[in-house]
Every structure is written in C-alpha cells, then in structure tokens.
Amino acid sequence: MKLAYITILFAGIAISISSCKQAERKTEISVQDTIPVKLMPINVGSGDSGIEATGVFTTDDETVLSFKNGGVISKITVKEGDAVRKGQLLASVLSSEVDAKAGQAKLAVEKARRDFERASKLYRDSVATLEQMQNAKTALDVAQQDLKSVSFNQQYSNIYSPVSGYVLAKMANEGQVVGPGTPILQVNGASNANWKLKVGVGDQQWTQIKVGDPAKISTDAMPSDTLDAVVSKKSEGLDPQTGTFTIFLELKEKPSYKLASGIFGKSIIMSAGTKVGNQWRIPFSALLDGNGREGYVFITQDGKTAKKQKIKVAKIENDDVLVEAGLEQAQSIIISGSPYLLDGSAIVVKK
Q1: Which chain regions cross the lipid bilayer (predicted)?
Q2: Three-state SS letters, the chain
Q3: CA distances from 160 to 59, 76, 87, 187 (A)
Q4: Tens-place pLDDT, residues 240-277
Q5: pTM (2 d.p.)
Q6: Which residue in 24, 34, 137, 181 is a FRET match for 10, CA 20 to 30 A apart?
C-alpha cells in the first residue's frame, strides 16, 4: 500500500514538472515570435506630396575675410556687389608698424649672426668656451624665427580674394581702426555657379531625409521655373539660432536665370516614404521576393501585427524603390526585421 502511494506521488510530481516546462516553453515561443522591427511612415492620399522646406540660396565658398593683425585700414578697393578675381587685392592696413618690426627683426638676425661667427672663431682659438659658442648659435636661431614670424604678419597686412566671385558685404571703411580677426569683407564664388539652397527642417523630417534624395526648388524671382536639386548634405546637430536642422540642396544644373546669395527659395524634398506623383519612394532594403515588376513588403496598420503586401515596382533608383501600386491604404512600412517575418507575425517597434 505504501509502495503504491509513493508511485502515485512521484507520478503527480512528474506531471506537474512537465506541465510547468510546457508552460515555460510556450512562454518562450510567444516571446520569440514577437519580432523587433523598425517602421517608416507612408504618406497616403492623392496628388504630389513631399517634405516642404524654405530657405535661401548660398554657396559652399562664402568666406568672411579679416586681417590677422589689427591696425588702421589704409584702403579698401571694392564695394558690395563688385566682381572679384582670385588673388585680387581687396584691402590693406597701414603697414608702418609691422614694417618697423620687420626691420628690427632683420637687424637682430644680422647681429646674432656676427656674434655667432665671432664666438665660433674664438672657440677654435680656445679663447671662448663651447657653452659660449652654443649660446651664440641659439641666439641666432631665435632671431631667425622672430624674423619669420614678423614676415608672416607683414604678408597678412593685405587681404586678397580667395575665389573668383562677388563681394557680398563690406563691413568696415577706410581709416577705421580694427582688431585682429575683425570682419572686413564677405565674398563668395558665385561665378562658379555652385549654388545650394540652405533650408531648415524639424527633427521628424530630418530623420526621413537622406543624402541623395531628389528635390524640386522654386523661387519668387522666377515662379514659372522649377529647379531640380538633390540633398547634398545634412547637419548633424540643431542650429541654436533657428531651432531647426540644416539641409543643403545642390542644384543639378545651372539655372537659366541669375541667382544671388540670400534669394528666397521653396523646396519639396522627395524623401523615402513620400508619394511622387502616382508613386511612393521606399528603401530598397524593405523589398522582398522581387520578381520582375512585382514584389512584396511588410506593412502594419496597428504597430503590432505584420501584413505581407504585394506591390508593383515602377523603378529602382540607387538605394530606393519607386512603387506605383500596393501602398494606397498603408500606414507604415517595415524597413528593418522583414526577413524574419511571416504574414500575421507579431511585432514590436524598436525606438
């Protein structure tokens, strides 16, 4: 009787342990079946859509020029709007003081050289010590370095244009006393036609835009003309003055009309996930099982369940895919984690 009771007891314990293990295994499977993914919102609706941004035209080589050494401005040879050539003299400061210092430095070098030659001769005659000759040599080296420093400062008593372009601003006048680094002139290389539109966007828009995205630009100066551009650069930090992130749109072709620095421009940036006419732009990494012009992507409507969606591909551009059908009712597309998904898979959105 006791043996039968013990057998039944062990059987009950085994069943209990087995049930616990099965429950744990089910929990593990449930957790493992929830796939972490990243989403990208999809713009829905009719008509053209994109990220709208406004800004001003500028060039990469806008430069503020100043004197290395302070002094009295003796002449400024240009005014705002003037065309300039690379290497052209633009401004000078009175060089009397720096010229005098250069003269003193030259005399100091000559004296130090004579002292060294005299000390060397005396050392050879065993009259001067080795230390005295070495000290004379050190004094000569110091004097020569001082002359180089003064000559460098003397060279930068003039301002020369670093580019061929135009004078954007004149910030000082002849006879004015300026300190080192005080802005005198601002120039750019507009003659090279390397124009960019500098726009500001919010943080959510910044995350959607990537280098290489196409854009359209219009200006009030020529409202009938649209300029093709491409995102050439993104700032990696917030501009504290504007509270926005800076995006640079580089023109693909030289405009048919003349631009000027500071002209206002409006842009529409076609980032991934935006609708371009009757097409959507999505990352190539989101495309699965492509066959000709057909393919599949995973979308989600609630952020919890993945749905496999058939799409029609219009074109592939670099790392993007233009989709012409299949995303009409989509809210978000899954761009990371797709290879691990099945239709109806549970998902969790990674931040």
Answers
A1: none
A2: CHHHHHHHHHHHHHHHHHHHHHHHHHHHHHHHCCEEEEEEECCCCCCCCCEEEEEEEEECCCEEEECCCCEEEEEECCCCCCEECCCCEEEEECCHHHHHHHHHHHHHHHHHHHHHHHHHHHHHCCCCCHHHHHHHHHHHHHHHHHHHHHHHHHHCCEEECCCCEEEEEECCCCCCEECCCCEEEEEECHHHCCEEEEEEECHHHHHHCCCCCEEEEEECCCCCCEEEEEEEEECCCCECCCCEEEEEEEECCCCCCCCCCCCEEEEEECCCCCEECCEEEEEHHHCEEEECCEEEEEEECCCCECEEEEEEEEEEECCEEEEEECCCCCCEEEEECHHHCCCCCEEEECC
A3: 19, 11, 5, 11
A4: 888 889 999 998 887 777 777 788 888 888 876 555 55
A5: 0.49
A6: 24
Report pLDDT digits (tens) over 115-153.
Answer: 999 999 998 988 889 999 899 999 999 999 999 988 888
8-17, 57-66, 299-308: least confidently modelled range: 8-17
